[in-house]
Amino acid sequence: MNAKLALPAADVSAWLAAQSGKDLLRFLTCGSVDDGKSTLIGRLLYESHMVLEDQLEALASDSRRLGTQGAELDFALLVDGLTAEREQGITIDVAYRFFATERRKYIVADTPGHEQYTRNMVTGASTADLAIILIDARKGVLTQTRRHSYLVSLLGIRRIVLAVNKMDLVGYAAQVFEDVERGYREFAARIGLSDIVAIPVSALRGDNVIEPGDSMPWYRGPTLLQHLETVPIGDEVDAQPFRMPVQWVNRPHQDFRGFAGLIVGGSVRPGDCLRALPSGFTSRVARIVTADGDLQQAVAGQSVTLTLEDEIDISRGDLLAAAEAAAGVSDKFESTIVWMSDEPMLPGRPYLLKCGTRTVTAAVAQLKYKLNVNTLEELAARQLELNEIGLVNLNLDQPLAFDPYTRNRDTGGFILIDRINNNTVGAGMLQAALRPAQNVHWQVLDVGRGNRSVQKNQKACVLWFTGLSGAGKSTIANLVETRLFGMGRHTYLLDGDNIRHGLNRDLGFTDADRVENIRRVGEVARLMSDAGLIVLVSFISPFRSERQLARSLLAPGEFFEIYVDTPLAVAEARDPKGLYQKARAGKIRNFTGIDSPYEPPENPEIHIDAARLSAEQAAEQVIGQLRIAGVIDRDWVFIP
To answer: What is the per-residue pLDDT across 585-615, written as a single tens digit (0 to 9) for each?
Structure first.
């Protein structure tokens, strides 16, 4: 390691204090394939003496076996650690590396150049303060250069280093460098990037990486490392209004109640007036508590516990903000989303949205367009596929405190999570709150759900029958309704085929249409149960997410998922409408069980073995379960 950074035996405490006092710059490298990103980072690590002796020996060995530089060291192998990366000579995953100089510490993210790994590049850029965009001097500005530059702009990175690499392969010609710089600045101006420092480099030979070298005497600017050591960082965050998402309510005993979290904007002092969002309650800071004692001031980047002068209701996920410059609160947003899942983004499907420490349920109400980041063209679309970017309107199930992403990345950035498998499926940026029309509001009514249930002497609920086509759902649901009607119960049966003749006649059978089909039916079922009815719903409803959405519209105990479990072979043998035969012949596309998936319920309230039971026996099973649940055969009294 660098002798200047070697651990001095005499004064360990002083050395540690010096290291902890250095600020941290996070940056990423991006650009097209083979522009030399990994080589550049490897050179930085090597020249800053951050490669240990055993690592250097391993690098020399790997360079002989896998390198592309003959007998010389292949610095890219210091960063490309995956076997596939070394075999193909490309970066696939995001590689993070730490190094330090006398003036500053660094975390660098080496991001992939291939378009198919755009989501990995977004991950690396999400926490970066600066981006190094590499361009091969022989090729100039390429499609992937524009793509990554747009993503960098989209993700709020404003400081750009344009590293024109491989100058050794163009004879270190000043004119080549100037032409590349001019072309890039013209494009960058179109996407709002203006803070650009252009540096001609040879990552392989080391020119202008750490030291200037003698090959480009016409260049008078800083080397790459000189710029990284002196570029300002953190100024924007420090100048922002105070923001602290509450991560934990600290209550060790009855005499102490504090709110712990990481400050993501501005600063705070005892006596400052804060507003808790989304509730809107205000109070003043009493103490700033840390493990090392109370502070008189805390700034962005510090984790602290705040105590307030007043006892107000604050929970994990709330946002403490400067009262005079509070964040916005809304449950409807215009947002940009980068889709990161192999499964497409479907409007209407519910996802979990995590912003800071708060998690809510969100659904895309409208996909306004998807963006061609190569041409910046806005394209009409019904869904987003892997690595695609779109502008959407989001609806949340509860209010969220936020700042536009351009003002604060921590309170304006979010991820979307699949509710079923907890995978992260998208990353997004909140752009602005959407307000409902001023003449749209909730009307208070004197007669409610409870009154209507008492009048009908029954428990209003939804019986949701799901299963494959031909499983027997409609037959069983019809028999159950007939029994309930004979008992004097007030019912209504929503059947999948019947609904498509009217309410949903405009929908097809794509995944997006199926999601919207169930969303509409779920809302109708909720309204009908609100009228005090026992609502029977018979739909294939193949996706767990949409069935969960329908369940979430009702109170606990009012939604009964009834799985009519029929093996595909049995359902196909029945084929009462000839649909399986047409699907097998290719005359029907997106048919559940053939070329479209069915996701069976995991914990249904009622599980019917339809291959073993007759339709009448299955109906009796449902009636019996409804009696046990208290839906029928009891008197109902409404207590307001």
So the answer is: 888 888 888 888 899 999 999 999 998 999 9
Just give the CATH number of 20-232: 3.40.50.300
- Across all residues in the chain, what is the average pLDDT? 85
Measured CA to CA, the distance from residue 557 to residue 254 in angstroms comes to 36
Are 356 and 247 a contacting pair, CB within 8 Å? no
**Number of neighbouring beta carbons within 10 Å of residue 291:** 7
| CB-facing half-sphere around the CA of 416: CA atoms within 13 A | 27
Taking domain 329-433, whether its CATH number is 2.40.30.10 is answered by yes
* CA dist 50 → 6, 21, 106, 256 (Å): 10, 19, 12, 46
* Cα angle: 518, vertex 523, 525; to 5 degrees: 90
pLDDT digits (tens, 9 = 90+) for 247-261: 999 998 888 999 999
CB atoms within 10 A of CB 495: 17
Beta strands 424-433 and 413-417: pairing type? antiparallel
The pLDDT tens digits for 69-96 are 555 666 666 654 433 333 444 334 567 7
Comparing 178-182, 202-206, 362-366, which segment has the lowest mean pLDDT?
202-206
Is the CA virtual torsion 590, 592, 595, 598 positive or negative?
A: positive
What whole-number distance in Å separates Cα of residue 289 and Cα of residue 186? 50
CATH of 449-628, picked from 3.40.50.300, 3.40.50.720, 3.40.718.10, 3.60.15.10, is 3.40.50.300
Which pLDDT score, from 0 to 100, does residue 94 have?
64
Residue 166: the pLDDT is 93
The model's pTM: 0.75
DSSP string, 139-168: T-S-HHHHHHHHHHHHTT--EEEEEEE-GG
449-628 and 240-325 share a CATH fold: no
Task: Please tell me the least confidently modeled range out of 40-49, 425-434, 543-552, 629-638.
Answer: 629-638
Domain positions in the chain are: 20-232, 240-325, 329-433, 449-628
Beta pairing partners, 270: none
- Is 639's pLDDT higher than 80? no
Sign for the pseudo-dihedral over CA of 186, 190, 196, 201:
negative
**How many CB atoms neighbour CB 288 within 10 A?**
22
**CATH class of the domain comprising 240-325:** mainly beta
pLDDT of residue 86: 37
Q: Any idea which residue has 């069976």 for tokens?
A: 600
Inter-residue contact 465 to 537 (CB < 8 Å): yes
Q: Of 439, 467, 497, 514, which is closest to residue 608 (Cα–Cα)?
A: 467
The sheet that has 303-308: what strands, in order across it? 243-245, 319-322, 273-277, 282-289, 303-308, 256-262, 248-253
Residue numbers annotated as active site: 541
The side-by-side arrangement of strands in the sheet containing 606-609 is 491-495, 534-538, 461-466, 559-565, 606-609
Are the C-beta atoms of residues 400 and 278 closer than 8 Å to each other? yes
Nearest to 172 by CA among 138, 146, 124: 138
Outline where 511-604 has alpha helix (H): 511-530, 544-552, 568-574, 579-584
At residue 46's C-alpha, the angle toward residues 44 and 52, to 5°, is 135
